[in-house]
């Protein structure tokens, strides 16, 4: 069973075909080192500084590593509540009464293979459209967070996943804010939560 068979995840999975849940960044690669660096700085306190581009690193690579990481986190979190989110219980993907996401949003993502979208070899250039593909993936990740917070919060609490969800989402928000990766209007369904989660660390 893969969470990607669920309608809520389908588009996200399609656009991020290149990094399926189980597919990790290979140990020993530069991206693996970057991921370890990210984890280490996260553990050491301030999220605002933890998300910043490490000195001398490439922005595309930093965004790639973190996007893969957020994707894996969302897969895990969504995986815990997936029984509550079926085609019957979630006929549309909503985030509260005011927001609904449609299966077609006018953005067509070309399917790229692993090596071109997420080059793992140093010196292999990222494709020119990498940042715009990454932004679309991050936007879709946000929509899954929004859907979970609005429609599946009860099981999240019952499963004692709330702190985990908060931590993951807070890291995600600091990251997209740092590099301006998601349009402000897109963040509206969770605006209040975002203000609460980020105000203490301003
Ligand atoms: C999650 O974040 C919200 C908003 O800041 C807060 O009200 C709630 O208590 C947090 N839950 C946990 C378990 O930390």
TrEMBL record:
Q: Which InterPro entries match?
A: MOB_kinase_act_fam, MOB_kinase_act_sf
User: Which residues are Zn(2+)-binding?
Assistant: 85, 90, 147, 152
Protein origin, superkingdom: Eukaryota
Molecular function as annotated in GO:
kinase binding; protein kinase activator activity; protein serine/threonine kinase activator activity
List the Gene3D superfamilies hit by this protein, alphabetically. Answer: MOB kinase activator (1.20.140.30)
Keywords in alphabetical order? Metal-binding, Zinc
Q: Name one GO biological process term.
A: hippo signaling
Cellular component GO terms held in the UniProt record: cytoplasm; nucleus
Write down the SUPFAM superfamilies for this protein, in alphabetical order: Mob1/phocein
Pfam families in UniProt: Mob1_phocein (PF03637)
Keyword check for Zinc:
yes
Name of the protein described by the UniProt record: MOB kinase activator 1B
Q: Which lineage is the organism of this entry classified under, starting from the top rank?
A: Eukaryota, Metazoa, Chordata, Craniata, Vertebrata
């Amino acid at each position: 069973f893969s969470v990607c068979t669920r309608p809520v995840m389908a588009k996200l999975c399609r656009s991020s075909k290149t990094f399926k849940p189980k597919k990790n960044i290979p140990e020993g690669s530069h991206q693996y080192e970057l991921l370890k660096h990210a984890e280490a700085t996260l553990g050491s306190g301030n999220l605002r500084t933890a998300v910043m581009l490490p000195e001398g690193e490439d922005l595309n690579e930093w965004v790639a590593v973190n996007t893969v990481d957020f994707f894996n986190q969302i897969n895990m979190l969504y995986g815990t509540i997936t029984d509550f989110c079926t085609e019957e219980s979630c006929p549309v993907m909503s985030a509260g009464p005011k927001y609904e996401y449609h299966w077609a949003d006018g953005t067509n993502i070309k399917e790229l293979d692993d090596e071109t979208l997420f080059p793992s070899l140093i010196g292999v250039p990222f494709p020119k459209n990498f940042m715009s593909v990454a932004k679309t993936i991050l936007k879709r990740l946000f929509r899954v967070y929004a859907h979970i917070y609005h429609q599946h919060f009860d099981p999240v609490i019952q499963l004692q996943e709330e702190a985990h969800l908060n931590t993951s989402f807070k890291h995600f928000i600091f990251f997209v804010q740092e590099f301006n990766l998601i349009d402000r209007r897109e963040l509206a369904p969770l605006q209040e939560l975002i203000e609460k989660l980020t105000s203490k660390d301003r």
